[in-house]
Amino acid sequence: METNTPTSLGILLKDATDNIALHDQADKIVSSEQTLHVQDMGNGLLFVYEQLRNVSENIENHLIFQSAIRRFYKRSLSFGFNKDPQGLAQELVIELTQAEYLKNDSTPLSKLAAIDTYINEHYRTYWYLIKHYKSVRPEIAQKWMLDILTVKTEQAFNNPVRLLSFAAFAYSHFSQLIKVSDFLVEGEKVDEADYSTVLYIAIHKALLKSNDANVRSGLFGLYGISNDNVEHLVEFNKKFDYLSSLKTTAKLSRTISRNGAPLRILRATFFSKNTQINGLRIDNRSHILGQVEAQITEEYGQVQKTVRAGVIKSIIFLLITKALIGLIVEIPYDLAVTGAIVVFPLVINLIFPPVFIAFTALTFKMPSNANKKAIVDYIETMLYQVGNEKPQLKYFQVSGRSYFFNVVYAIMFVGVFYLLAKELLFDLHFNIVQAFIFFGFLSTASFLGYRLTLQIKELEIVSRNQGFIALIRDFLYAPFIFVGRKISYRFARMNIIAQLLDIVIELPLKTVLRMMRQWSTFLNNKKDELL
Predict the structure, then answer these.
(1) Most CB contacts within 10 A, which of 43, 156, 318, 405?
(2) How many Å apart are CA 94 and CA 74, to the nearest integer?
C-alpha cells in the first residue's frame, strides 16, 4: 500500500538534509577577506609529480588530497627535536595550490591562521606525550597526532558535514538490523560498551572507505576528545587502535558492505557534494523515489567510468612497479648469474600483468534493471511506512567454515600454483627469481582486477546466477587473489616505491622550489627598499 508517511529514518533524512542546506548557505556567503595569492613557480612540474606519486601509492581517490597534506606535515614537522612550526600553514597552502589541489586566490588568510593553530596545538600535544607518557612509543604518538591534524586540516578546506551526517544516518539504519555480538570472532574480547564504536568503525570503512585517520577524527568529535585532557586522549586512541584492528570489525564491515547498495545510493542522492538540497519534501514519496531511481541510473554510468579509470591506473601502477623491480632485482640477477640479460622472461613479466588486467576488465558486467528495482523497493521500506514491511539484511557473513571446503581450497591453492610453476620453470625456462616476480605480479593484477569488480558489486542487492565459466574462472583466480591481497596490503604498509619517490624526487624538488620562492620574496623586498 502506497503511503507518504515517513519512518524514523525518513525523518532523520529530512533533518540531515536541512542541516546540510544550512551549511551550504553559510559556505556560499562571499567574504571580502583577503586571500593568499601563490606565484606560478614550478606549478606544472609539481602537478606532474603529484600525479605520478598518487598512482604509485594506489589509494582511494577521495584520500589523495589528505595524503598530500600528510606528506607535507611528515616532511615539514620535526619529530626528532622540538622545533617551533611557525608559518607552516602558508607553506602548505602554497604547495597544495602549486600542485593544483587548491585554486589560487581561494584560501582566506583567516584559514591560514586557523590551520597554524591546529598545527601548534597538536604538535605541542605530541611532545607532551613523548615527555610524560613513556608507554606510548614515539611512532605511535606521531601517527595519532598526524591522523587528527591531517583530517582537521583537510576539513578546513572541505566541510565534513555531508560525510558525518551520512555516517550518522547509516549508523541509525544498521543499528536496527545488526547485533555486534553475532559477529564476534572467537578469541577476541570486545566490551559491550564498545559495540557502538565497533559498528561505527565498520560503517565508515565499508560505506565511506575511510582510513583510520578519518574514523579516528569522526569519533574524536562524537566523544568530545580534546588535547586538553591528554589522559583521556591516550586511553581513547589505544582503544581505537585495538577495535579498528579486530577481525570482528573486519567481519562486520564485510557484511555492511555487502548490504550497502541502498545506503550508497542514498548517499549519492542526498549527501553528495554535487547535490544541492533545499527544503527536502520527505512527504512527497513519488518524487523522492523518482530521485533515487534517477540516481541509480547515474551511478551505473559513473561506475563504468570509475572502473575504466581504475583499470588504467592499475596498469600504470603495475608498469611503474615492474620497471623498478626489473631495474633493481631482475636485471642485476640475470647479469650476476648468466652474465647477460634474459629478455624473454623480462618482457613477459612486464607485459603479461597489464594485459591480464585489461582482459579481465572485458568480463565485467554492470548491475541489471532488476537490481535497480530491488534497490528502490528497499529504500522505500527504509524511508516510508509500507504495511508491515521493514528493511532486512540481504546477505549474512557465514559464521562457520566447513572442514571439507577448507581442505578442497588448500588443495586447489597448491595445485594451481604447482601447475603454473611447472610451466614457468620447465617449459618457459624462467629462473627462480623471474618465476617469483611473475607470481607476484600476476597475483597483484588478479587482486586489483577483483577489487575493481567490487565497485560494481557495491551497487548490487540482487544475487547473480554464476555460470559454469564464471565458476571455473573463480576457481583458478582465487589463489592469486588471496596472494595478491596479501602483497597489496603489505605493499601499502611498506610502499617502498612511494618512499623512494619521497626521498629521491619529492624532498629535493619541493625544497628547491621553496628556496626559490623565498629567494624571489627576498629580492622583491630588496627592490622595494631601493625605492
Answers:
(1) 318
(2) 16
